[in-house]
Amino acid sequence: MSASSTPSSASSSLSTPAALWRLKPFIQPIIGRLVGGAASALAAAVLALMVPIVLEQIIRGPIATGNVAAIVGGAGIVLLLGLGEAAMVWLRRWFVLTPATEVEYRMRADIYARLQTLPVAFHDRWGSGQLLSRMMQDIGLIRRWIAFGLILLVVNLLTIVIGAVLLFQWHWLLGTIFLVTGVPMWVQGYLFEKRYGVLARQSQDQAGDLATSVEESVHGIRVLKAFGRGKHALRRFSSQAETLRETELSKARAVGTIWFWLDLMPQLAFGLSLLAGIWLIWQGQIDAAQLFAFFAMATVLRWPIESIGFLFSFMLDARTATDRVFDIFQETNTITDPKNPVHIAEPRGELAFEGAHFRYQDAGASERDLLDGIDLVLRPGETMALVGLTGSGKTTLTTLPARLYDVTGGRVTLDGVDVRDLPLAELRRHIAMAFEDATLFSASVRDNVLLGRADLDPHSEEGERVMREALDVAQAGFVDSLPEGTETIIGEEGLSLSGGQRQRLALARAVAAAPKVLVLDDPLSALDVDTEALVEEALRHVLAETTALIVAHRPSTVALADRVALLEAGKVTAVGTHAELLKTSAHYRHVISSLEAEEAARTGTIPIITEEMIEGGASATEEEEVQA
Which residues pair with 551 in a beta bridge? Predict the structure, then answer.
């Protein structure tokens, strides 16, 4: 997915209540606490509404008669109501703050678990910044809305209704003025929802795009510096930041409009009520105490009325955040455990591709399948090299055995069992991978190497033995010279290590997993010649009892293989030993020549394939080399 776009939301057609109702499974465990918080907030509002009624009685009674003791008693009652209101506000916070953080925790944990189970195809479409903004900003916003916005919106609406009813007890004309002047606010609120909802979604998506740009720039800082493109990245970032700023300004204007009406109409109501109240007193229909109590009540209601705009926009932000979070929850997981799983108790390691087809999700209808009917069998314990020109589909083929992607036609089998019929955990115990682009995690060397051995305690004697054997095979003895040895924490993505060091640790991780099938996508590309030779020699012992599929980008890697498969335009066009293919396949000779040319540029040697070698079937390691 590009940094400037996000997958479309299927939730936009839902009403705001329906969209927010999807949070029910997360809120249900704390619903009792939320009800307690709402009850406390409502009690605080009711206590506040009682103050004007008490004031009316004080003015009409003790103040009119001059009874000082009664005035003090009335003031004490007002004080007690204020203290009670404060206590209820504290109780509301006690009820909801901790449970709301539990909701936040559960949502984050569930999204993280969801991201781990969704297929690689999902991650191909989504920018990491978009996922990060949903995980952090959106869920944090939902938590604040549950703890604050939801309860206050409900309670303030109830307070307005109760207060409006109470206003009618003094005179119907005063209550009517209050209600009629509220109509423009509700109309503007409806228009506000239509506009603000769209802007809120744009803003949060643009914030995700901006986060993606920051992450890409940080991860690619070496490239940007090497090519002097820092200013270019800054211009791109500034453009995205300016777009987000303009959207935020549009949001601010929308909020400003609703606040204008929320501030104007109460002021207008106060003015009209004052004129009507004076006229009613002149007509003898109410007295000064009643008018005073009416304005005291209207003042109490002013904050709930004015808060509606803020709480309404808060609710729409929460709705947008909910849509964005549920965009992930609603993604279809196409790579799942089978309903009727098959188990392989003692795997032999026979890996077979039977008429396997694959095409990426964004491939055009007129394009051929990237893998267009692969038929290939790896015998148990056999090492097979996979060679082909760039774009022939080698790397894609290696993703199919462990179901990083599923075939779109045909099948892949392990010991005759379709890999789609095996539980994913079991399949990935039997098949391990090492990629050319070695990815390490911000953890210790030990934890990185033993990542695939959930059955081992990393710090046990067995864990130590497995780790050491894997490090020896990968020629990764350099770890002992790190500041804390194998307990050294590797920096983000292992960028504190060299490319060759990262590759060796990734290879050690694959070896430590002790799989029955090992899939290696050119795992030695960043190694120097001497280290590569040592690793290859160690790998020969490891691969003696392990089925291996190795993508070969070097002639020396081909030498590890028992047989070689030639991939051409999405099809396996030839299978045999290196010597056999040299004799029988012109395209294979072309591919090997290309590999040798690349090797020559890297090592400074010029290998030559002679006619005698083709006729005699000499191995690649026996070719004459002329020093450059």
Answer: 386, 521
